[in-house]
Amino acid sequence: MTRTCRNCGYVNETADKTSVICPNCGVPYSASFSGPHNLPKLATNHASPFTVPSGGYLTPPPAVTAMGAPLKPLSSRKTATNRRNLILGVVVVILLAALSSGYAFYRSRVITTPAKTGTILYNDPQGQFTITYPMDWTLQTGTIPRNGGTVDLTRFAPKSGIQGLIVAVSKSPLTNSDAGAIVGHFGGIAYQAQGTPTTINATNGQWQSVGGAYTLAGQDEAVFVRSTKQSTLNYLVILFGPAQQFNGPLLNSLNGIFATFATKVGA
């Protein structure tokens, strides 16, 4: 029987009942064709595109990506992927090492650097002096009669009260010999001066200074008593702390606070 392809017009003169696909274009005979039907008839001996030459093999076309470029062989893609993963892994390791090193440096700076204690600038309500003291300290105030007048007292110390400074201000005479009465107001007993007074030139003026000792709540306290006069006011500052550790870091700390003391001349 003869079958004519509706797609390409090829006449298959050797077709039979089992022939369902055009050997010329590969389109089923029953499929409709929306294109032109006036295509020239091909020769009856036209070779079928599906005919494999003797001894030959069909070479499969290269795989095509969405962009139209041939894909690389699977092994090449795996190699590229492995290489990319390796590079990403190295970059991640380097970044983690850098972050770890930076964090370790940061922690070493934080841990080894002593934390700075906040401070408070204290202005005497009567305008007689200013001083900067640690913000975790407390202060006590009081007034005692002395030398024909009154003495205004301000005590700066931690809550434990075993170290700190006492500032005394009066218009009446006020010298190192008055230290016993001043520490006594805050619970100190058995005050004794030790040594000979000496003159010191501090950043806040010239002072007379002498050492001493007393007892506070059963504990031996050592002191440095410093006195000066500015205009009409007499000042006395007592640095005190546990006798067994008064020298060294504790005394340096107290001297640092004393260095912030400033008198108000003319007050």
Structure description:
This protein has 267 residues and is an alpha+beta fold. It has 3 helices and 12 strands; from the N terminus they run ββαβββββαββββαβ. Strands 5-6-7-11-10-9-8 form a 7-stranded antiparallel beta sheet. It has a 3-stranded antiparallel beta sheet with strand order 3-4-12, with no helix packed on it. Strand 8 and strand 9 form a beta hairpin. The model is unreliable at 31-52 and 105-115 (pLDDT under 50).
For the record, the CATH architecture of the largest domain stands as: 3-Layer(aba) Sandwich
Terminus-to-terminus distance: 134 Å
Oligomerization category of the chains in this entry: single chain
Name of the CATH homologous superfamily of the largest domain: Mog1/PsbP, alpha/beta/alpha sandwich
On the 0 to 100 scale, the average pLDDT is 79
